[in-house]
Amino acid sequence: MAAEKLCYHCKEPLTEGVAHDCWTTTEAALTDDLRDAWKRLRVFAATLGEQRVYASHNSIMFSRRTCHFFVRPKAKRLELCVFLLRTERSPLVKRAQPVSATKVSHMIHVTHPDDIEPPITDWMAEAYEASAEPPPRAPKAPAKPKSRPKPKKA
């Protein structure tokens, strides 16, 4: 008999073919401020337009073509990671690092519902818009001229 699959988040058994929503269980473990911040963040994300929202390991992912931001709940904060096509320099950004040739991840700590306002919402909207199009290609290096074989001496 195959081992029973368990949800990574809530450790509940998963039934094949049955939808599983464990984020509500995880959400109950948040403090009141973090729960309210999560609700504001989720409502704002919904205003951006159609997107897929799903749990992946210990994060809630928001994506169109690709993931444009995700939220990772922690005991004292929500970690919001926003993928922009540029590096944003702000005291709100705890860490920014390139994750591909075109995208830079920006880690933001959210501790209160009032944190979900500009400029954070502007960055979320920018990331959402950037995820609609295929990422711009990195410039190619100039092609090297092909070398011709040297003629053989007779």
If you had to describe this structure to a student in words, what would you say it looks like?
This protein is α+β, with helices and mostly antiparallel strands and 154 residues long. Helix content is 22%, strand content 24%. It is built from three helices and six strands; from the N terminus they run ααββββββα. The chain has a six-stranded antiparallel beta sheet with strand order 1-2-3-4-6-5, covered by helices on one side. Strand 5 and strand 6 form a beta hairpin. Helix 2 crosses helix 3. It is extended, with a radius of gyration of 22 Å. The protein starts with 22 loop residues before the first helix and ends in a 24-residue tail after the last helix. The relative contact order is 0.14.
